[in-house]
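User: I've been trying to design a sequence by hand for this structure and keep getting stuck. Would you show me what you'd pick, starting by listing the structure so we're on the same page?

Assistant: Good idea, let's start from the same input. This is the structure you sent:
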């Protein structure tokens, strides 16, 4: 080898400038609404439903709203992200298989 190899992101995502600031941590989930983003891969919705049940039972989550991406291989649409931001206190993305 002649030197370090450069890895390329095939999605072009590395070409985009993004804000990597972390969101503030929630002190509690009690009474909150979770947005659940289903990737459309097999079993993603099953996994997310179980996560929501556990969060309700163990952490007092009030409710959850399931959202489904158009296709698992692409990012969520900006309009869908904005809808989650408007309607939910936090989000969980699920990838199945």
């Amino acid at each position: 080898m002649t030197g370090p190899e450069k890895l390329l992101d095939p999605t072009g995502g590395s070409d985009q400038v993004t804000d990597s600031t972390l969101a503030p941590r929630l002190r509690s989930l009690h009474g909150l609404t979770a947005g659940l983003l289903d990737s459309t891969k097999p079993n993603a919705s099953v996994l997310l439903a179980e996560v929501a049940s556990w969060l309700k039972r163990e952490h007092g989550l009030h409710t959850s709203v399931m959202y489904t991406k158009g296709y698992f291989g692409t990012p969520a649409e900006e309009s869908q992200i904005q809808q989650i931001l408007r309607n939910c206190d936090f989000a969980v993305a699920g990838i199945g298989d």
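That's my pick for every position. To get oriented when you compare it with your attempt: The longest helix spans residues 44-59. The mean pLDDT is 89.
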